[in-house]
Amino acid sequence: MDNDPSQQGRVATRALESIKAELLEICPCSPDINFTENAFNLFNRSLRGEAVAKNITSENFEPFSERVSQAFERISVNDIDKIISSMNNRIEAILTILHSLLVMVHKAYRSSNKWK
Fold this sequence. Notes:
This protein folds into 3 domains: about 1-30, no CATH class; about 35-75; about 85-115. Helices cover about 65% and strands about 0% of the residues. The protein has 4 helices and no strands.
């Protein structure tokens, strides 16, 4: 679950409980490590790329609905596996940035003569 409020309502909670699923929460402020965001980005790029390639600037519901279905079908298991396998590198990158920020804050605090 990606912390969408609709996924935490009564109906969703009961559905999860009925299948004895465990809710794993993902920080809503970290799209880099949010699988759903990454999978949707892959889907969205496919859909937009097709629109650009076919010069589609507007369309009715039916053709759009068909393109959406086809875009989902174009996402392969390999594509999903790549997203999953990239998560460790994404988490490491975030931790590296956070570490650098903490070091900078620590140095700034020490240089402000407030460190005792």
